[in-house]
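Predict fold of Phosphoglycerate mutase; 349 aa.
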Amino acid sequence: MKSLHYERLSNKNEENQTTNNNNSTIKNWRSLILILSSCIFIFTLNFSLKKPNLNKFESINGYFIQSNLETDPQSFNVYDPNVSFGLINKLGWKSFFKSINKLNQINSSQKIYYKVIFAARHGQGFHNLAETKYGTIMWDCKWSELNGDGNLTWGPDARLSEQGKSEVIIAKKAWEREISNGLPLPELMIVSPLSRAIETMKITGLWGFLGPAEIREQWRENIGLHTCDRRRKKSEILNEFNHTVIKFEKDFKEEDELWDPIYQETSQQLDIRIRKALGQLFNEKSTHQFISITAHSGVISSLLRVIGHRDYPTQTGGMIPLVVKASWEPSHTIPPLPGPSGIRPNCPT
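Predicted 3D structure, encoded as tokens:
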């Protein structure tokens, strides 16, 4: 019995020793995994720091007169034959192109890039007519949520009025004139998915030189509440504007999944969206230096805020040329919070 007792004790001690060895092995493996995980994390972090996304955008003033505070947006006509879209360089477009090209060549090693963006607003739409008819206050608190008033129809997805089409024809002639004067053709055309913007782009006619413009959801007007800003189905857009005029960005949805009848995107939320869209534009694997974007007043105003350009209201059918610098800077701050969405204001009593 005594021998059996010691034998059991011996076996138990061996089991405990084995368990301890196993626990020690597990701890060693856990430590090794933790060290490897830390190394992978540090490697990933360093790798991401070596290849950062461009996150700082600046308006480079001095190329176009629109950036001068003395220029009155109400009286300056960007399509005047004598102003070359506002170009300050008296040597003309070829000299301007060389200066932009040189900026990119000199700074590319520092991950600094420059693009020229021609930001065009659509021609007058029926929603613009309605706002003029009823005034901005009543438009915002009542009429903008309806599709029409029995005489005018502006929703969903407002179309160009006859005046709007005439405004765009003026823009078309101005583009043709400046191209003949040496203006480099845009290498990329982007257009909002809303019909009035696509109509404007089509009439302007640059697609005839460059091929179809790319519809990108992020460049649409403030999303929500107003019926004029609710887009049509993808298939309906394509049925009217075929593949010779437009193409869709990857993963463009059939239905408008963003528009909401109760809430509207605020200026702060729009700025976050446009900053993201601008980042996409600069971080794409392309060498495009001259870009045309056909969009909306809200989008253009947001773009100016994002790049730090002076406020410059763009008339219907108008356009503002911009020289934009993109770079990367480290930031320890969290991205801005979008805040609460807007809702319909109360009508005056």
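Residues 1-15, 30-51 have pLDDT under 50 and may be disordered.
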